[in-house]
Amino acid sequence: MAADWLGSLVSINCGETLGVYQGKVSSVDQGSQTISLRQPFHNGMKCPVPEVTFSAMDIKELKILEIPGGGAPAGQTDSGSTAHNGRSTKGPGSAPSSAPMAVPRKGDLRAQEELHSPQQCSKSYGDRHLEALGLAKGFRRRHNSWSSSSRGNNQTTPKKNGMKNGGGLKNKDDECFGDPLEEILDTDFDFEGNLALFDKAAVFSEIETSEKRSGARSRGTPSERTPARYRHDENILEAEPIVYRQIMVPQSGGKEYCTDAGLVVPSISYELHKKLLCVAERHGLTLERRLEMAGVCASQMALTLLGGPNRLTPKNVHQRPTVALLCGPHVQGAQGISCGRHLANHEVHVILFLPNFVKMLESITNELMLFSKTGGKQVSSVKDLPDSPVDLVINCLDCHENAFLQDQAWYRAAVDWANQNRAPVLSIDPPVSTREQAVDAKWSLCLGLPLPLAESAGRVYLCDIGIPRHIFQEVGINYHSPFGCKFSIPLHSA
Question: Using one digit for the tens of pLDDT, what is the confidence trace for 185-228?
């Protein structure tokens, strides 16, 4: 009579390993002791296969949840126990008994339909029976967003009292994972439709009204303009557009430079540069002041090139840097001696090369007198210069006006020593010459405004020697300082 059970809704418990299966009986084989379920559910989840076959050896408990064409003999198992309605079974292949079945009343039809749904398959008989009777005492309603809508309005779920209710972990798993996912997986969530239901203008208007009544600060509405966000180094006040060409010269020197900030610094000819220094000296910016400013700026740049605070520290006194200073008998040489004096004051080992002359400029004599008080070394022959490489070579051999010095023996000997020594070279106030530079410099330092130097001058730097703005205007230069907070800045070819 196995055919009588076909189509019945049953629940098969296969133990903790295989779990619980629910489904409709599709076939029963008494010979091989197997039973097959179609459209099966495994632990409340729909199986990916259309049919599952079980052996009698794997079945721990079998419950008949619904018989086609008849009632719902809930509680029937293959253990031989008799349910409250008087019907029992002896395994998957036993014939139905003739005991009377409980016929549900008309008022309980809805509860019976809910008991027969797949969502209820994972529940025990006691839970379903209490829900069918409508016993809500000591129970709480589930608040899951989708599962609560799929159940009846009058259904409740027992409170999680642990082992006191006798349900244990199984009841907790059934409550959490017992609902099927068919309704969730089959339909996609309509984001656009739900977003259209949200009236943002009305909501913000209501919030603003409530805040005005309570005296709270208004957060604003989406229609209001959001204020601009500024970085910590930006000015919140609206300023005029930046003008990058702030220095205008009456006659271009043929080359333009720009600073790191993008300001354009034009070069000037040597004639205009000489006129600028003469006007500055007439107004009180004497040669001695210019020498001091040039020496300070050049020494600061040299100290930075030597390593700065990483090299010149009290813990590193045993590795004092060595600087070779090559100077000629002119104003550029006096600027180099002033730079050497400041370097020696900062514990730098300075070796000054200056050839012997019968008569020297007064500015050179004064600078040599001050340099002798620093403890620096002065030599007049190239043979006395160190054979090993030094840390830095400062070149002040060249002059703007007297180009015949390059033909003298002492000049050629100093140039050969500087080129053979593998130390980097810094040139201070190099001249503009059609001839190639005798000493290849890595850096060149210009004073006031740059001259149109050749590529062999290396990287060009500009230092501030203290010329006032109105003195620039006297020679026809519209000047705005490009230095910012520094006295020496790098220049890049525009």
Answer: 566 778 888 887 888 888 888 888 887 776 655 455 444 555 56
Locate tokens 């210019």: which residue? 290
d(CA 40, CA 18): 13
Token pair belonging to 305: 């090139």
Tokens representing 400? 């703007």
Average pLDDT estimate for 326-340: 95
Cβ(350)–Cβ(343) below 8 Å: yes
In this structure, how many other beta carbons lie within 10 angstroms of the beta carbon of residue 92?
A: 23
d(CA 467, CA 185): 81
Q: Closest Cα partner for 334 from 310, 304, 367? A: 367
| Residue 444, strand partner residues | 427, 460
Residues facing 36 on adjacent strands: 27, 53
Pair type for strands 264-266 and 377-379: unpaired
- Residue 445 banded pLDDT, cuts 50, 70, 90: very high
Residue 479 burial by Cβ neighbours in a 10 Å radius (0-12, 13-18, 19+): buried
347-350 contacts, C-beta under 8 A, 24 or more apart: 347/312, 347/317, 347/320, 348/302, 348/303, 348/306, 348/312, 348/320, 348/321, 348/322, 348/323, 349/320, 349/321, 349/322, 349/323, 349/376, 349/377, 350/322, 350/323, 350/325, 350/374, 350/376, 350/377
118 and 37 in contact (C-beta within 8 Å)?
no
Question: Cα–Cα distance between 439 and 304 in angstroms, integer?
Answer: 21
pLDDT of residue 227: 57
Residue type, 78: D
pLDDT recorded at residue 105: 43
If 0-12 CB within 10 Å is exposed, 13-18 middle and 19+ buried, where does residue 190 land? exposed
Residue type, position 195, single letter? L
| Cα within 13 Å of Cα(493), Cβ side | 9
Q: 325 pairs with which residues across the strands?
A: 352, 394
Q: Residue 199's Cα: distance from chain center in Å? A: 36
Angle between helices 287-305 and 331-345 (to 10 degrees): 50
For the cut 90, the answer to whether the pLDDT of residue 312 exceeds it is no
